[in-house]
């Protein structure tokens, strides 16, 4: 594994502090980024939009964030619900979140955050439907409709 990879770091207090960063995926660094013991939350959507039976994405959060009354992380929650629709409405993520990709099949090592996850996060933060992220025709239509054009 390389010493650093691109991760999507999502802060609960405003999107300005959130974004793709180059990080070390070591346990110690992930714990530092989320502020405590890590808990993996999985996403199952692949780049084509299909839901798979194995995870394609991992979102690391602090497993004790709610106990410590960390603020809700609504952008990370919306991304999680997009990546795993069965999770929608069941819980809300709290505190900082770190999003990485996972390998296919038996390769459970962390990989850089996938492009389709970046695109979905960008769509969500712009008020667009993440199912159309990366599709320029649908994305233009959605942006035009949202702007009243």
Q: What descriptive keywords fit this protein?
A:
six-stranded antiparallel β-sheet; alpha+beta; about 150 residues; single chain; about 20% strand; globular
Brief digest:
It contains four helices and six strands; from the N terminus they run ββαββαββαα. With 149 residues, the chain is an alpha+beta fold.
Sequence-ordered SSE layout with sheet pairings:
Elements: E1 5-10, E2 19-23, H1 27-34, E3 38-43, E4 57-62, H2 74-83, E5 97-102, E6 110-111, H3 115-125, H4 136-146
Antiparallel strand pairs: 1-2, 1-5, 3-4, 4-5, 5-6
Helix pairs in contact: 2-3
Helix content: 25-40%
Q: What is the string of helix and strand elements?
A: EEHEEHEEHH
Q: Termini separation (Å)?
A: 47 Å
How many individual domains? 1
Biggest β-sheet strands, sense, barrel: 6 strands, antiparallel
Low-confidence stretches: none
Shape: globular
Q: What radius of gyration results from the CA coordinates?
A: 15 Å
Query: Structural class of the secondary structure composition?
Result: alpha+beta
Number of continuous helical runs: 4
Summed over residues and divided by their number, the pLDDT gives a mean of 86
Number of strands: 6
Strand content: 15-25%
Can you give a write-up of this model?
The protein has 149 residues and is an alpha+beta fold. It has one domain (5-146). Helices cover 27% and strands 21% of the residues. The chain contains 4 helices and 6 strands; from the N terminus they run E-E-H-E-E-H-E-E-H-H. Strands 1, 2, 3, 4, 5 and 6 form a 6-stranded antiparallel sheet that branches. The longest helix has 11 residues, at 115-125. The radius of gyration is 15 Å and the shape is globular. The chain starts with a strand and ends with a helix. 33% of the residues are buried. The model has no long low-confidence stretch (mean pLDDT 86).
